[in-house]
C-alpha cells in the first residue's frame, strides 16, 4: 500500500471508529456513577480492608521473624560439661603433623608459647610396630582435649528452617502486594523479590570446600613404609577411651560469596552407650592462614571465614574396644568402626546455613579387639569414647 | 487571558471541595466532566454499549476507592483514563473469543440506513469493521486511543501502562493487519 493508501486506511479507520461512537453518556449511567460516592462500602470492600490489614501486619511480623531468625542464630554448641581432665599435649621440638609427609624431625616454623599436638621425633623401621606416644599434660595450654562440644554438633543445620521461614515471608508479602493497589504494592513486591533472590542465591551459589594436608595429633605413630614408597604414613593410635586428635588439613571455600564455617557434625554424639569412637570437639589451628602447616589446635572452632585457609582439628574419644598403640595394619583385629573419609560441615552463606561434605585425605577407622581391653565397665576414664585416624 | 481566568475559576471550584474535605462533591464534578469521553471510549473499545456502561461504572468505583490517595486533582483525567483502559482491557480479555453483537449499533443503523453507497465502499467498511473486531484486546485499545481519542504515543503509553516502544510496535502490527484485511476485501 502506498502513502496515499496509508492516508486512506487512516481515514477508513477513523470513519469506522466514528460509526461506533455512541454519543454522550446516557442519563442512567450519569446517575449511576454520581451515586457511587454515596454508596457505603460493600461487604467485600470491608473484607478486603480487613484482609489487607491482617496481611500487612503479617508481612511486618514475618520480616521481623526472618531478621531475628537468621541473624540471631546460635553459634556452635558448647556443652555445659565441666572438663574433667586436661590432656593437652606439648611436644617440645615436635613438628606439625601434616600429610605432606614432612618427617617428624622437620624444623618448627617458629618458637611458640602455644601447645602443639604433633608427631614425636620418632621413626620406626619398616615393619616395626608403631609405638604409642605418651601424652604430656601441660597445665598452661589452651588446648584442652577433654573439652566437649565445642565446634561440633550432633546434626549440623542444613538451613531448611530458615528457608521455610523466608518462603512463608515471601508468600505473605506477595499476597499483601496483590491485595493492595497502586504504587503501594511496590514496597512489599520488592521485599518479596529481594527475599526470593536472597534465598535462591544463598542456597544455590556453588560452594566447594577443599582441603590439603592433615594428619594425626595426640598419638601419632608411623606405619612401616614399603620400599620405594616416598610418603610417610601416619596413624593416630589412641588407647581405649582416651582422647585422640587429627588434623583435617587446610580448609578453604571456593565460592564467589563469603563463606563461613560454623561447625562440623559429630556422628554418634548422642549415644551414651556407643562403644566406638566419637568426635567431641573441633579446634582451629594456631596457623590460621594455613601456609605454615599445622602447629596444633589453639582455639575452639567458632564461626570462621573460609575465604582464606584454616587448618581444622577434630578431637574425639576412642572407643572401649580400641586396641590403641598395639594396632598393626596386618592384624586388623576382630572388627572395626569407621567414620569414613568424609566430614560433614555446616557453612553459612549470606546468613543462611548449608550442609556440605568435606573430603578428607584419609579415613577415620577404629579397629576393635574382642574382648575389649580394658573392659569398659572398669575404666575410670571419662565416659567418652575416642578413635584413631588412619592416613 | 480570559481563557486562563475561566480555567482558574473552574479549577478552583473543583479543587476547593477537596481542601475542605468534601471529597465526594469534588469526585462527582471530576467524573461528570469526563463521563462522556469515558463512555465513548469504552463503547468503541468494547463494541457494546451496555458493557461500556458497566465498564465505566466499575472504573468509577475503582477510582472512588483510590481517590483518597490522589494528591493532585489535575492528574485526575489521566489517572481515571488509565483505570478505565485497564477495566476495558480486562473485560476484553475475559470475553475471550465470545462474539458480542452490538444490538444498539445495529438498531441505529437500521433506523438510519446508510445512504446508497457503492458496493466497493460498503465492502470496505465491512472489512474495516471485521478487522477491528478481529484485533486483540491490546491492539484494539491502542488503535482506539490513537485514532479516536487522538492521543499521542507517550499519552497512550501512560494510559495503558506500557513502554512507548510497545505502543508503536502494537500500533504498527494492528495497522498491518487492518491493511491486509482491507486489501483482501477489495480484491
3D structure, described in words:
The complex is a heterodimer of chains A (391) and B (187). In chain A, the strands form two sheets. In chain A, strands 1, 4, 5, 7, 10, 12, 13 and 14 form an eight-stranded mixed β-sheet that branches. Chain A is elongated, with a radius of gyration of 33 Å. Chain A contains five helices and 14 strands. In chain A, helix 4 packs antiparallel against helix 5 (186-204). In chain A, a hairpin with a 2-residue loop joins strand 12 (335-349) and strand 13. The model of chain A is unreliable at 75-141 and 374-391 (pLDDT under 50). Chain A is an alpha+beta fold and 391 residues long. Chain B has 187 residues and is an all-alpha fold. Chain B has nine helices and no strands. In chain B, helix 1 (2-19) crosses helix 2 (23-46). Chain B is elongated. The chains are: A alpha+beta (391), B mainly alpha (187). At the A-B interface, helix 1 and helix 2 of A face helix 2, helix 3, helix 6, helix 7 and helix 9 of B.
Amino acid at each position: 500500500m502506498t502513502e496515499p493508501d496509508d492516508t486512506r486506511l487512516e481515514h477508513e479507520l477513523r470513519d469506522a471508529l466514528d460509526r461506533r461512537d455512541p454519543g454522550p453518556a446516557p442519563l442512567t449511567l450519569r446517575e449511576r456513577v454520581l451515586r457511587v460516592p454515596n454508596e457505603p462500602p460493600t461487604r467485600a470492600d470491608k473484607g478486603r480492608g480487613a484482609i489487607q490489614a491482617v496481611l500487612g501486619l503479617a508481612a511486618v511480623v514475618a520480616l521481623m521473624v526472618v531478621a531475628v531468625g537468621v541473624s540471631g542464630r546460635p553459634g556452635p554448641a558448647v556443652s555445659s560439661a565441666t572438663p574433667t581432665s586436661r590432656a593437652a599435649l606439648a611436644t617440645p621440638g615436635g613438628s606439625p603433623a601434616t600429610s605432606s609427609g614432612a618427617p617428624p624431625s622437620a624444623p618448627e616454623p617458629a618458637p611458640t608459647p602455644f601447645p602443639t599436638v604433633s608427631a614425636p621425633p620418632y621413626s620406626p623401621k619398616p615393619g616395626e610396630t608403631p609405638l604409642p606416644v605418651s601424652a604430656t599434660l601441660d597445665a598452661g595450654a589452651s588446648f584442652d582435649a577433654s573439652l566437649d562440644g565445642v565446634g561440633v554438633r550432633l546434626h549440623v543445620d542444613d538451613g531448611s528452617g530458615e528457608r521455610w521461614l523466608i518462603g512463608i515471608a515471601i508468600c505473605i508479602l506477595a499476597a499483601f502486594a496483590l491485595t493492595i493497589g497502586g504504587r503501594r504494592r511496590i514496597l512489599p513486591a520488592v521485599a518479596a523479590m529481594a527475599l526470593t533472590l536472597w534465598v535462591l542465591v544463598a542456597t544455590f551459589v556453588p560452594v566447594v570446600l577443599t582441603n590439603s594436608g592433615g594428619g594425626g595429633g595426640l598419638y601419632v605413630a608411623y606405619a612401616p613404609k614399603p620400599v620405594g614408597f616416598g610418603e610417610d604414613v601416619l596413624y593416630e593410635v589412641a588407647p581405649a577411651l582416651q582422647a585422640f586428635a587429627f588434623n583435617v588439613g587446610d580448609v578453604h571455600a571456593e565460592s564467589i560469596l563469603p563463606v563461613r564455617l560454623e561447625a562440623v557434625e559429630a556422628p554418634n554424639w548422642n549415644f551414651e552407650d556407643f562403644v566406638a569412637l566419637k568426635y567431641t570437639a573441633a579446634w582451629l589451628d594456631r596457623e590460621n592462614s594455613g601456609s605454615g602447616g599445622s602447629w596444633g589446635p589453639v582455639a575452639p572452632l567458632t564461626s570462621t571465614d573460609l575465604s582464606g585457609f584454616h587448618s581444622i582439628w577434630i578431637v574425639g574419644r576412642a572407643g572401649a574396644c580400641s586396641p590403641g598403640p598395639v594396632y598393626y595394619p596386618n592384624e586388623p583385629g576382630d572388627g572395626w568402626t569407621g567414620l569414613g573419609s568424609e566430614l560433614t560441615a555446616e557453612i553459612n552463606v549470606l546468613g543462611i546455613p548449608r550442609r556440605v561434605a568435606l573430603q578428607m585425605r584419609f579415613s577415620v577407622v577404629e579397629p576393635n579387639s574382642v574382648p575389649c581391653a580394658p573392659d569398659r565397665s572398669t575404666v575410670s576414664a571419662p565416659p567418652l569414647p575416642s578413635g584413631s585416624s588412619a592416613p | 487571558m480570559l481563557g486562563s481566568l475561566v480555567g482558574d475559576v473552574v479549577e478552583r471550584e473543583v479543587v476547593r471541595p477537596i481542601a475542605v474535605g468534601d471529597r465526594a462533591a469534588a469526585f462527582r464534578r471530576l467524573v461528570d466532566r469526563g463521563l462522556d469521553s469515558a463512555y465513548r471510549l469504552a463503547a468503541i473499545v468494547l463494541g457494546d454499549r451496555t458493557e461500556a456502561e458497566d465498564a465505566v461504572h466499575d472504573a468509577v468505583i475503582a477510582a472512588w476507592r483510590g481517590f483518597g490517595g490522589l494528591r493532585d486533582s489535575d492528574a485526575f483525567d489521566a489517572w481515571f483514563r488509565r483505570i478505565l483502559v485497564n477495566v476495558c482491557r480486562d473485560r476484553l480479555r475475559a470475553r475471550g473469543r465470545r462474539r458480542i453483537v452490538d444490538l444498539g449499533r445495529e438498531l441505529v443503523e437500521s433506523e438510519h440506513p446508510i445512504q446508497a453507497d457503492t458496493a466497493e465502499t460498503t465492502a470496505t467498511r465491512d472489512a474495516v469493521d471485521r478487522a477491528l473486531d478481529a484485533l486483540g484486546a491490546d491492539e484494539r485499545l491502542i488503535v482506539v486511543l490513537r485514532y479516536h481519542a487522538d492521543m499521542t504515543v507517550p499519552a497512550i503509553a501512560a494510559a495503558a501502562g506500557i513502554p512507548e516502544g510497545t505502543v508503536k510496535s502494537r500500533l504498527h502490527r494492528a495497522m498491518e493487519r487492518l491493511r491486509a484485511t482491507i486489501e483482501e476485501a477489495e480484491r
